[in-house]
Amino acid sequence: MENLIAVITVFVLAMFVGFEVIVKVPPTLHTPLMSGSNAISGITIVGALLSAGSGHTTLTTVLGMLAVVFATINVVGGFLVTHRMLEMFRRR
Amino acid sequence: MPQWIVSLSYLLSSALFIFGLKRLSHPRTAVRGNLLGAVGMLIAVVVTLLDRRILSYEAILAGLVVGSAVGALLAVKIHMTAMPQMVALLNGFGGAASALVAGAALYEAQGVPGAMTGQFTVATAASGLIGGVTFWGSLVAFAKLQELITGNAVVFRGQHLLNGAVFAISLALGAWLVLRPEQTGTYWLLAGVASVLGVLATIPIGGADMPVVISLLNSYSGLAAAATGFVLNNNMLIIAGSLVGASGIILTRIMCQAMNRSLANVLFGGFGAQPVTAATADSVYAGKVKAASAEEVAMLLETARRVVIVPGYGMAVSQAQHAVQSLANLLKARGTEVLYGIHPVAGRMPGHMNVLLAEADVPYEDLKEMDEINPLLKQTDVAIVIGANDVVNPLARTDPKSPIAGMPIIDVDQARTVVVIKRSLSPGFAGIPNPLFAAPNTLMLFADGKKAINEIIRSLQEAGVAA
Question: How much is the ipTM here?
């Protein structure tokens, strides 16, 4: 129970931080905000790596590997395409 | 590697994500912000790879190579006009990854004493549900935007009832999984029903409501990651996931406000599914619409001191952004002030128009938000509307019964002359006629957006040579 309260606390506080930080992003940058935050949501890759590498059973390895593929597309594609867009805004 | 180093590294990554997002508040600092986020991700991945629980690297390497190749290819090849599809797809992949990780965790926890806590099982069910909805909802959004399936709202009798029933079943399955977590089959059943729900919930939402859907799915992909954080008891996942969740919620709210509609209305409305009757369109337009040629518009622009360009999704469709930018440069060189008025829901995702114009080298200082541009329109000589319709429809202000009543619009009708570049008088997404087209100060230039702008440029240049 102690642990549950601790993680819920982190969740709620992070939500508040998220609101405060993201409200300040101007509409001009809303598309890169979406693709960039999307790349961040690929953080599940951490869990995917552990499942793919821990060799628990073949099934969990396969599930983990699939998750690694999806999460990596999300992370690599997200950060790269965001970079591409933001470079266009910075050009001048 | 000792656990405390891992935990501290994760904390560092979380902090980098927050700093990164903070720097997105200005175009000048945004590139660095995105890089900070990427560095945070790299630290998290490297530290995880050194974890002693990892025994073999074959599956990891294979996954990383395939994922990186596909991700990089998508990111480099995608056209800026197709950015909404790309983001929809990425949202979906994030959701799928979260659901798969939670599924794997469920198997790994079988038979481990004390692993099946309430937190674990509830979070696993949530991951499966949100992840499934996100993945399939995003695939449908992708297919609509890519025009693989109809972009219109797909509505049928009993739709709400069916969706409600499917949602209830998924909740029941989730509850069952919490009670009997050893029955792993329930998880896949839950993910399957969630997938059906994702499809059913997205098909009734039509083209111009896509900005809301993509924002919402963006939020879901974050919440799925946060739920997986609860499964794995990992603070970094919870923090990163809730940042993204918050971002999506904010964007969803902005999009809904920009249309003066509630989220429920967008999600359940089947908006734009009823075609407009020809009779109402006739009574609005009959005998009042004035068509103009590119030369006439060029003559107007020659003497204009301030020109405001209002783009819509039609500009993206006709790929007119580069032509628009050339026209703006030409006018600026003659001393005319040129600004852009961007409605929040113009295009198919938040900020879509801005990205397209930035790609065409339009300086971001010239891109004005609705609230900034509206006070300037009274002192504007020519407003050029290209590929936009509902977001400049004055009925939103005047007709309380209109489907767009109360929606904030860009007040182009206040400009001295309005030039609307459009192929026909066909209605926009809301399916209603636009009295702006018949206003005494409006000229219609019936043509494809790109062609029309290029013709205006040619006329201006010829006039310049003649003078």
Answer: 0.96
